[in-house]
Design a protein that fits this description.
two-stranded antiparallel sheet; EC 4.2.1.161; globular; two-stranded antiparallel ribbon; lyase activity; transmembrane helix; BABR_hydratase
C-alpha cells in the first residue's frame, strides 16, 4: 500500500530519479553560480586577459595561441551569470525574440564583412571558430550579451525612470556605445579583427560606433517587446549575480586596454566599474 501511494521505497526512488522541474533546475543553477562567483567573474577574466595578451605577444605556441575552442568556452563561462540570471524570463515569446536577434546579428555581420556597412570595412584577423558564410557561429554569444548587460545596468541605475522608453532607449544605446569603446580598441590591439583604413579611436573608425547605434536600437526595441519588465526588475532584485558578466567584461577588457596603453578605453572600463558599485553589483564575495 505504501509503495502504491508513493510513500514507500519505490516512490522515493521515482521521486529521486524524476526529471527536475524548471524551477528546481533554475534553483540548482542559481546555487551553483553563487558558489562559484569568484571563479566565474574574477578568475576566468583574469586568466583570460593573461592568455590573450600572451597570445598577441607570441608567448604561447600556435596550438594554444588564440585557440578558438578555449576562446568560446571561456566566453560562455563568463556569460553564464547573464544567461542563468535571465533564464526565468525566457518564455516562448522571449525565445522567439532572442532567435530573431541572433538572426539579426548574423545578417548584419554578413553585410558588414561584405559591404563595410554599417560598422566600416573590417575583417577577422584570427580564427574565432567555425563560421557560416564567413561569420563565426558563436557571434550571438559575443553580440547579444553586450546589449543585454547594458539593458540590465540601465534598468538598475535608472530605477523608475527606466519605465519611460524615451529615457530607457537612449540610455541603453549610450551604454552599449560606451561598452564598445572598451571592447573594440582592446580587440583591435589583440588582433581579433582589423579595420584596414584605421580609425580615430585606437584604430577603430567612428563608423563602427554609428553601426552600434543601429544594432543597439534594434536589440533594445525587440527586448522591450518580448520581456516582461515587471518580472525583469523582480529577478534583478533577487539575483545578485545577474551582472557578473559585466564584472568580467570590466576586468578582462580593462586589463587588456591598460596593457596596450589604451588609457581612454581603460578609463571607460573604470566608469563601468563605478556603475556596478553604484548598482550594488560589484560585490563578488571574496570568501567564496
Amino acid at each position: 500500500m505504501g509503495s502504491e501511494g508513493g510513500d514507500g521505497p519505490a516512490g522515493a526512488t521515482a521521486r529521486a530519479t524524476a526529471r527536475p522541474t524548471r524551477p528546481e533546475m533554475q534553483a540548482r543553477l542559481d546555487s551553483l553560480l553563487r558558489e562559484h562567483r569568484v571563479t566565474v567573474a574574477v578568475v576566468f577574466p583574469t586568466v583570460g586577459a593573461i592568455l590573450l595578451v600572451a597570445s598577441a605577444e607570441g608567448h604561447l605556441p600556435p596550438p594554444l595561441a588564440f585557440e578558438p575552442f578555449l576562446l568560446l568556452l571561456g566566453t560562455l563561462v563568463m556569460r553564464s551569470p547573464l544567461l542563468i540570471g535571465m533564464a526565468p524570463l525566457i518564455d516562448r515569446r522571449a525565445a522567439v525574440g532572442v532567435t530573431v536577434l541572433a538572426g539579426y546579428a548574423y545578417a548584419i555581420e554578413f553585410a558588414g564583412l561584405r559591404t563595410g556597412w554599417p560598422y566600416g570595412e573590417f575583417h577577422y584577423a584570427i580564427d574565432l571558430g567555425p563560421t557560416v558564410a564567413g561569420v563565426p557561429i558563436g557571434l550571438p554569444v559575443f553580440f547579444l550579451p553586450l546589449v543585454g548587460n547594458a539593458y540590465l545596468l540601465c534598468s538598475l541605475l535608472l530605477g523608475r525612470r527606466a519605465r519611460a522608453a524615451r529615457i530607457r532607449l537612449p540610455a541603453v544605446i549610450g551604454t552599449v556605445i560606451a561598452m564598445d569603446l572598451v571592447l573594440d580598441p582592446g580587440a583591435v590591439a589583440l588582433g581579433f579583427w582589423t579595420y584596414p583604413g584605421g580609425g580615430a579611436v585606437y584604430g577603430v573608425p567612428l563608423s563602427n560606433f554609428a553601426g552600434w547605434v543601429l544594432s543597439a536600437t534594434v536589440t533594445v526595441l525587440v527586448l522591450d517587446v518580448v520581456l516582461d519588465r515587471a518580472a525583469l526588475l523582480e529577478r534583478l532584485d533577487t539575483c545578485e549575480f545577474a551582472l557578473d558578466d559585466l564584472v568580467s567584461f570590466v576586468l578582462l577588457w580593462g586589463a587588456v586596454n591598460v596593457y596596450f596603453g589604451n588609457w581612454g578605453a581603460a578609463a571607460v572600463a573604470g566608469l563601468f566599474a563605478l556603475g556596478l558599485v553604484r548598482a550594488d553589483r560589484f560585490d563578488v564575495p571574496v570568501g567564496r
